[in-house]
Design a protein that fits this description.
The chain is α/β, with parallel strands linked by helices. Helix content is about 35%, strand content about 30%. The strands form three sheets. Strands 6-7-8-3-9-10-15 form a seven-stranded mixed β-sheet, sandwiched between helices. The longest helix has 16 residues. The radius of gyration is 23 Å and the shape is globular. The protein starts with a strand and ends with a strand.
């Protein structure tokens, strides 16, 4: 494997009976980057991450993580990565400090390393003042920080985070991503799965998985640059009614609801402003704002999935 790569897979596949959970997945993750692995629930994200972590053997294909083969060296991989699972992985009855001590022992850290690792874990989680509190009594955001700190005790160079901000409030999500940035700036490779498309904007590179297949790869900027339609945001007194009305028009390429507005895309060559105003008039709705906008990653991914196309950039 290229020395610049932290993770590399080729046609990685996992079957459960006749069901194909992960299908011919191929991607590379460079050292020190934040790689966002996106997809809806059931798309194959967690199955992929478990294969990469040496927890689940693949049915076929290959992969190398931290220089070790996922087929023949899964135990070596486990020793050299950090893994924060989707479900709460700490011991609820133990205090913050006791959890850190337990995982330090699990990683077989000697006394000197354990002291330094514990100090760093408390600093990372910002739980020094709460170290005597049982984990079950922490708010979800603090639990997630503690879980990540425990995954970093043995100073791994690659960290896998499986849905780390699920169930976390927006402020805690932002704080958690600040922590991820800090880790990446220290040269740690971050592999994070999420279904929050706004979080993908924080990633260096992205892989979008849909129904077990990679359908888009590249940086957020590259992927948004592949959007081949005119996109407009429309604010109206009744966005749902306008959306339902426009869905019947053959000149509308795609339409989706975004908060109190709708995003409508058209192929190039269509002049949408007069068409939209005429449609709103016929449906007796008031257009409050109409403006051309740049696509979000959500717009791009909806387009990719509906068109069943595959977009790959350099990685």
């Amino acid at each position: 494997m290229n020395d610049q790569l932290a993770i590399s897979t080729s046609k990685l596949t996992k079957k459960f009976g006749d069901f194909i959970s992960v299908n011919d997945v191929t991607f590379n993750v460079k050292r020190g980057e934040i790689f966002g692995f996106l997809g809806s629930n059931g798309a194959g994200k967690t199955t992929t991450i478990r294969m990469l972590c040496g927890i689940l053997p693949p049915t076929s294909g290959s992969g190398v993580v931290a220089g070790y083969d996922i087929l023949t060296q899964p135990e070596k991989i486990k020793e050299n990565i950090g893994y924060m699972s989707q479900k709460f992985s700490l011991y609820s009855e133990l205090t913050v400090e006791e959890n850190i001590d337990f995982f330090s022992g699990a990683y077989k850290l000697n006394n000197n390393l354990r002291i330094n690792a514990k100090k760093r874990a408390l600093e990372i989680s910002k739980l020094t003042e709460k170290k005597k509190i049982q984990a079950r009594n922490l708010a979800t955001g603090w639990k997630q920080r503690l879980a990540l700190a425990c995954a970093l005790l043995h100073n791994p160079k690659i960290v896998f985070l499986d849905e780390p901000t699920a169930g976390v409030d927006p402020i805690s999500r932002r704080d958690f991503w600040d922590l991820i940035y800090d880790l990446a700036s220290d040269g740690i490779t971050i592999f994070v799965t999420t279904h929050f498309l706004d979080e993908a904007e924080h990633c260096t590179s992205i892989g979008l998985i849909h129904e077990g297949r990679i359908v888009a790869q590249g940086s957020p900027q590259f992927l948004k640059g592949q959007f081949q339609q005119q996109l407009y945001r429309i604010e109206t007194n009744n966005p749902i009614e306008l959306m339902e009305f426009l869905q019947k028009e053959n000149w509308v390429q795609d339409i989706s609801l975004f908060g109190n507005s709708i995003h409508v895309s058209f192929q190039f060559g269509v002049e949408p402003k007069s068409l939209i105003k005429d449609a709103a008039s016929r449906s007796q709705l008031i257009i409050q704002n109409f403006e051309k906008i740049s696509p979000s990653l959500e717009d791009v991914f909806i387009s990719i999935i509906e068109d069943k196309s595959v977009i790959k950039g350099s990685n």
